[in-house]
Amino acid sequence: MKNIFIVRHAKSEKKLGGTDFERPLNKKGESDALMMSKRLLDSKFKVDALISSPALRTKKTAILFSETLEIPVTDIIFNAALYDARAELFYKVIADCADNFTAIAIFSHNPGVSDFVNSLNTEVTIENMPTCSIFAIQADIANWTNFFKAKKKCLFFITPKKWK
Question: Which CATH architecture has domain 2-158?
Answer without folding.
Answer: 3-Layer(aba) Sandwich (3.40)
